[in-house]
TrEMBL record:
Name of the featured protein: DoxX-like family protein
Transmembrane segments: 169-188, 208-233, 240-258, 264-286
Pfam family, one: DoxX_3
Transmembrane helix found in the keyword field: yes
Native species: Chryseomicrobium excrementi
């Protein structure tokens, strides 16, 4: 079964001229489009209808993909609707994309502009490339939709893409931090090693005997592991941050009541939990006005 082409559509409350400028000017385009680090137009002859360009995408420090592109021309209807077609590709084997083509469409209306794109590409490495593309293609679609929302906010609100992406990646860095903290705290001191201090605090806070507390601490660890995995679910993250803002003071107080000595130990429960409590508040603040791929339509006519 052939892979479906990528389709992304968004409504932008501004003129078609503004949307055209921000998406066609390479110095503006590479600021909001997550798929590209830089886009450079090549010189062309006055009568040449094809605009060639080169692009690069930085995957990590010292590793980037460089490719070529051709803008095949612009078509404008009497209604003011514009379409820009393009072809692109790269010779670098590090990229799963060999060559592709697509178009951008701009549809003016009373409340602004409908901005959409549809594109497809061929993968390299045969059947292995097609299997990998089952994971890669949804990421490309998500990256395109996220970029469109960043563009929308830049045009409508005036917030620069750099600021939006800084907030976006800072927020998810916090989410991955909490996922690691809860997974580690549940797995290592409770499930794998059953640290005596963990068992002792549970004994002080409950009517359990030592054997029962040893078993219970494993289940507490499993619950913390599951809580850690919940941080990887985007729809839950805001609620989890709100929950932590409420429960961290109680967790800190209960630990001190169970074992007062933990309050004066190096890197103790007070310093750890207060830090995580403040980071939770920062995460909630970052979540406000967070760019999202959900603001885009991903299927034609939906």
């Amino acid at each position: 079964m052939p892979a479906k082409s990528i389709y992304v559509e968004i409504e932008i409350e501004d003129t078609i001229e503004k949307v055209w400028e921000y998406s066609q000017d390479p110095k503006l385009h590479d600021q909001w489009d997550l798929r590209f680090t830089s886009i450079t137009y090549n010189d062309k002859l006055p009568d040449d209808d094809v605009q060639t360009f080169t692009y690069s995408t930085k995957l990590m420090p010292g590793v980037q993909v460089t490719g070529w592109g051709e803008s095949k021309g612009t078509h404008e209807k009497a209604s003011g609707e514009k379409t820009s077609s393009l072809q692109f590709g790269t010779e670098q084997l590090i990229s799963p994309i060999a060559e592709g083509k697509g178009h951008w469409k701009y549809i003016p209306h009373e409340n602004g502009t409908t901005f959409l794109t549809q594109y497809d590409y061929q993968v390299r490495f045969g059947v292995f490339g097609r299997l990998f593309d089952r994971l890669f293609r949804p990421v490309m679609g998500w990256g395109t939709a996220l970029s469109f929302d960043v563009l929308k906010r830049w045009i409508e609100v005036g917030e620069s893409p750099k600021t939006q992406y800084r907030r976006f990646f800072s927020f998810y860095a916090i989410c991955f931090l909490f996922a690691f903290v809860w997974l580690y705290q549940g797995l290592v001191p409770k499930v794998l090693t059953q640290q005596p201090l963990e068992i002792q605090m549970l004994l002080q806070l409950s009517p359990l005997n030592y054997a029962q507390a040893s078993t219970a601490i494993i289940w507490v660890g499993i619950a913390e592991i599951l809580f850690g995995f919940c941080w990887l679910v985007p729809n839950l993250q805001k609620r989890l941050l709100q929950l932590q803002v409420v429960i961290f003071p109680f967790l800190t107080l209960s630990a001190i009541l169970a074992e007062p000595a933990v309050a004066i130990a190096p890197f103790n429960v007070i310093t750890l939990n207060v830090t995580l409590w403040i980071v939770s508040i920062v995460g909630l603040l970052l979540h406000e006005q967070l760019p999202t791929a959900k603001s885009c339509k991903r299927k034609r006519g939906k």
